[in-house]
Amino acid sequence: MAQVKLRDIRKSYGPVEVIKGVDIDIDDGEFVVFVGPSGCGKSTLLRMIAGLEDISDGTLEIDGIRVNDIEPSKRGIAMVFQSYAIFPHMTVRENVAFGLTINKAGKAEKSEKVAEAARILQMEHLLDRRPSELSGGQRQRVAIGRAIVRDPKVFLFDEPLSNLDAALRMDMRMEIGKLHQDLGTSMIYVTHDQVEAMTLADKIVVLKDGKVMQAGAPMELYHAPENLFVAGFLGAPSMNFMDVTVGSVNETTVSVSNASLDQIDVPHKGRNFVAGQTATLGVRPQYLHPATDGQGRLHGKVMLSERLGSETVIDVALADGSKIIAALAEDSIQEPGTAANFDFNPAQAHIFPETR
Amino acid sequence: MASKLTTSNRAGWGFALPGFGLLALFIVVPFFFAFFLSLTNQRLISPNPTEFVGLDNYRDLLSISVLSIPPERDDAGQIIRDDDGEPTYARVRTFTRNNPDFPQYAGMREWFRWHSGDTAKVVVATDVVFWKSLRNTLMFVLVVAPVQGALALGLALLINQRLRGINVFRTIYFMPVVVSIVVVSLLWRFLYADDGLLNNILHALSFGLFEGRDWLGDENTALGAIKAMSIWQAVGFHMVIWLSGLQTISPTLYEVASIEGASKWQAFRYVTWPGLRNTAVLVLIVITMQAFALFAQIDVMTNGGPLDSTTTVVFQAVERGYGKQDISGGSTISVILFLIVLSISLIQRYLTREK
User: Cβ contact (<8 Å) for A103 and B261?
Assistant: First the structure.
């Protein structure tokens, strides 16, 4: 159990800076997910914490100790890789006990710790098999078992579910969540899948181009994204964005409109706007609903109606040619080609000064 | 689009025919020819008709026996000793030539002997030179296969690092492989010569203590000198095979080892070596086969001498077949070599099989 502290962490490959000053605090027992598009530096950051990549600048502390120059094995971490990285020539038992073998642990300690890890992961029956006889999910379980045996202060997961098929991914996701509950150890988890981020995290860190875009609790990020990138990255289907013109700036709201959108006052949450500028309005598809008064605020034309059962997703074309998506209740099927009028609660909309 | 040419069976065979025909003519047919010729008394050029002789050639080559010669005794039954106090023995030829009491030793010659008590045990063979060539070849394989394999692995590990200029080293190590073995052998003959580079270097390094020796002219050093040169010449080739094996090992496995705190040796023991299993089998079999086929170095450097100390099985096959025009004898040696290499390969495959 340990706190992890990153202060102005930087990483350069020659003249190219890939991590551009990252500050993150991870509390004891917290489950932190680094999420972001590929190339955002999330895996590099994790590998720097693990000690597999050098830290060019900044300070990394685990448990109050600066570990920048400490070997990976002495940092008190365990890592689970996307490719499982289990040894094909060893049985499951030997794989799980690998760290103990390296450190020349006694036979009794070995079998006790392996049995404990196998019990936690419910894989006692797999111990004498070889990796070639295991499914992807079982292999990843072995890799997690190897991490548990290390009894680390911090678990590091590098996209552990990306090589699994969809159904298995969901099972393993739940198991990792349960593992965190059982062990109560700090975990850092890297993924590009926002569903994994939302479901598992105590705290999500959204990264882009080597910088932290926003860090916070999942629902905080979902409901109060600080910028356009975070707003668009979390949530499925992703948030609708519309270019709007700012009419007037009031004390707590701005008044915006465009060709398809009637004037509406949206809380600006302290962001600065000037009248007449172009801004971006974001509304989640789930918060759009058909206008009950027949008028509505947002007008468009239905392009496509997709029935998903639990909800109906409607593609709507707006006057300026852009497209938005509305996720409606299950039976709200609308004919393509018909006019659609939507309404939404301005408190659930987000206005950003930047344009896309 | 599949044209008529690419779908026609006859066209396919037509295209395969030149290659297939050449392979058949120069590899498959000679292979079976060797089997057939080894059962005859065919000579390269001979006015006499070829006769089928069964397994006579094999018997002549492989006949080997141990002859026990008791020490000579005087009339009182005392062992006659020479001036040094050693017992004296009857000459071997008294048993092997025209001695009706020992027909089984007829025509055999002494290869080597040892003493068991006062009795001399003499190993006699019909074809001593062949047995010497077999021993030399086996000694060559036994030294070259492990040393060359291990050295190549060491070099591969060294050049598998990301260092500036590592390609220069790769090139240097690989260079001897691309040079013809005949050229290499000629150059090393100069190195090994009495006034050659090696003697001069050793002389200088030992501050004049080392007098120099004729490496290839001494029966005790000739085969060793050829082993050293052969290892040096082909080590680069096997280095490349090892290198390709090393690069198939996932770097993530090394990261796991480093997170678990493995030392360099442990990383090699638990990650590298198991990952090289299949490569190791390949390298071992290839080196063994190449070593058994030792010929060019011998032909260029020593011609099998001195005192047959460097003669090898393939050298004997060529020497007999073409030098002595005894095609059937050469074929017999080829067939025996084939059987030896085949069985060693099978044993190696069995020992290194997936469990």
Answer: yes
